[in-house]
Amino acid sequence: MSKRTFSLNLPLLTIFCLLVPVNVSAQQRPRKKIVEYGWDVPYQEFVRDNIREMEKRPFDGIIFRTRGFDHIFDTRPWKKEKLQPQLDTLTQIKWKKFTDNFLTLYAASKWNMDWFNDELWNVIVENMKLFSLAVRSGNCAGVCFDPEPYGTDPWVYPGSYKNKSFDQVCEQVRRRGRQFIIALQEHMPEIKVLSFFQLGLFSHIVDEPNPKIRQEKLLKKWMPLLPAFCIGMLEGAAPGTILIDGNESAYYYESHHNYYQAYHLIRQRAKALVPEDLRKKYNSQVQVGMALYIDQTLGKRTVQTISQFMTPEQQLKFFEHNVYYALTTSDEYVWCYSERMNWWLPVEKVKKERILPPGVEQALLSARQKYEQGKPLGYDIKNITEAARQNQQKKK
Predict the structure, then answer these.
(1) Smallest Cα–Cα separation from 102: which of 56, 150, 135?
(2) Alpha-carbon span 260 to 262, nearest angstrom
(3) How far lies 352's CA from each of 284, 315, 347, in Å?
(4) 71-117: per-residue pLDDT in tens?
(5) Of 308, 313, 320, 316, which is closest to residue 388 (Cα–Cα)?
(6) What's the pTM value of the predicted model, to 2 decimals?
(7) Which residues pair with 292 in a beta bridge?
(8) Cα–Cα distance between 75 and 72 in angstroms, integer?
């Protein structure tokens, strides 16, 4: 039987059409979502009463909070009957445009939490199960976890564990991270946990192959016990649970290179901190998020920043640049943080210095439109940032 041969006389375009799936032109870019968080973080009753006005802002969701039931390391037993009024309020929120919303959990430890105290941790686990119920009641995507210790730092070593080795404490912290995520999955088996930072915070140790030197470097920096907690969360995560490294370090990025480097750090280099048997799970259930810090880019901070040496038009270009590359390099979520402004109150109720800066919404929308349409940003921010830095140096 003779062999069939593929005719080379077909037009190249015809061959290409035969090889490419017919629905490829209908595919869209991955949908990225921007959620808002800041000093204007609202309580659930404000959201319930103002959600239609809030949804006019250019976000896909918000990070908001409950009252008094918002600290992971609170060792006081939470009572459902006391939380119930807030659960009722959460169920009354009628989301429409805001599809991805998160309830906050803070890591301040002012209740003398002890990683080795099973009795206290039984209380914490039950509290987190109630918090899981709150997340479900609010029809939220998940939890926003802020590991930063505002108060007593639970992530230090040796702290109160001078009689235990670092490895012993890390093993216990990992166990607690596992308990934490399992409790949060009690009523939300496919929960999303947006942490302001996870393993991406530890870029200073991910490339160190020597375990002893790596540990020495880890102990010299901030929150050395946090990686163990993150590994525990990953270990206990159910198949549908997503852990998002929010990469708070992106607050201070000034170049598109910073965003690509951060994505590679979290997606690849940070796996050096992940046990080999969990790396496949890390690949599938950990996402890279990105952060925006409006005050930093629009010159509204009380400390000196290069954006204070830009014109208002340049500041908006700087912000648009950061939005564009945050969207480009995140897996799904970008969280937009601000301090000295308020997105939610009417102008007449906001102090003059906290009114939303002119053009900020338009810059965000412009960046999003360019990303979604596959268009380039259209300009290079390098000349603007370098000129601003030179002007800053002249003032010193």
Answers:
(1) 135
(2) 5
(3) 46, 19, 8
(4) 999 999 999 999 999 999 999 999 999 999 999 999 977 888 999 99
(5) 308
(6) 0.92
(7) 336
(8) 8
